Amino acid sequence: xxxxxxxxxxxxxxxxxxxxxxxxxxxxxxxxxxxxxxxxxxxxxxxxxxxxxxxxxxxxxxxxxxxxxxxxxxxxxxxxxxxxxxxxxxxxxxxxxxxxxxxxxxxxxxxxxxxxxxxxxxxxxxxxxxxxxxxxxxxxxxxxxxxxxxxxxxxxxxxxxxxxxxxxxxxxxxxxxxxxxxxxxxxxxxxxxxxxxxxxxxxxxxxxxxxxxxxxxxxxxxxxxxxxxxxxxxxxxxxxxxxxxxxxxxxxxxxxxxxxxxxxxxxxxxxxxxxxxxxxxxxxxxxxxxxxxxxxxxxxxxxxxxxxxxxxxxxxxxxxxxxxxxxxxxxxxxxxxxxxxxxxxxxxxxxxxxxxxxxxxxxxxxxxxxxxxxxxxxxxxxxxxxxxxxxxxxxxxxxxxxxxxxxxxxxxxxxxxxxxxxxxxxxxxxxxxxxxxxxxxxx
Length: 443
Known about the structure:
This protein is an alpha/beta fold and 443 residues long. Helix content is 44%, strand content 18%.
């Protein structure tokens, strides 16, 4: 379908809120729209005719030019986050998309790039960093907010608390939060993984032993309960505790008394117990692998922690939180993840939950040289998610197709109001109708 004569190309591009520029095969800027002028602070007449690297001075101008890669490989780039230097010397975060520019015969005559100012997004992320943080737990999802509301009251009590949730949901973080918010906050917090030690070692770790209890017991050794006196013991993976130790733990929960291995006298310890498991304890009781009376003692207060797949709105917050920690530890200054990287992560189901996200970001952090983590920095098993996560490229195709998509986006931007879209683009309603029809038919 021929392009309508009453819609000059410059008018379409000038109406776009994103910056847009084109270059020829010699890297000379051939077009620079009004949004590009506003974002960069460089007047149109100063940009056109100059080399693109003199105009932008971006973090990709040192040999990894986005438009250059597209022209060389006849490819495209979508939503890549970088920095540019404005005319006043300030550094600006932007998101770019780039593609080759072809004539009607299909010959590459240059490149086209759009870019979007991410300053407001970065500011909102920084502001949200502290708003959505409870103790060291980051999130704003409905499931977490419900827990946040009741956690102070739970912490203020002395009740034994059971944390349920999949592996990697951050159960120890919640246990520490309960301790830190409780009257025991000045006492010790002692964590024990009940699934990480053999039965005999676990008993001595929990309850200690007396000199002569076994061959190598040359002196008394305090157990974790004694070490946590006045504080909190966190028993992780409680579902893996062997039956003989379940009996001893039950007694402790009943009267705060226990007997060290090899001891003959009971010892008292003023300790609150917080337990956690990723197992179905009710099913374990039914199977006979977990004592029913112990289950009811542990189940005074129960908190079920949501998996990350149910906390999708928390992903950007968690990403910023982990990157902040890695920057502090490793002395780097990674600014965040690119938009396409975030898109990939938002489409991943995270079977390993928050721990998997942390591992992914730590891996990417190592590979990323600076600025933003890109998709190529992610672990290989996530690379295949890009095709599924990526949306259509607004710069791909012929000029007619680009103009038709610009019309479609204008309608979307104005919530379906076509007259408003016409005013936005400076075109007639008939022209808009023809552009939308061309997009639907693919002509």
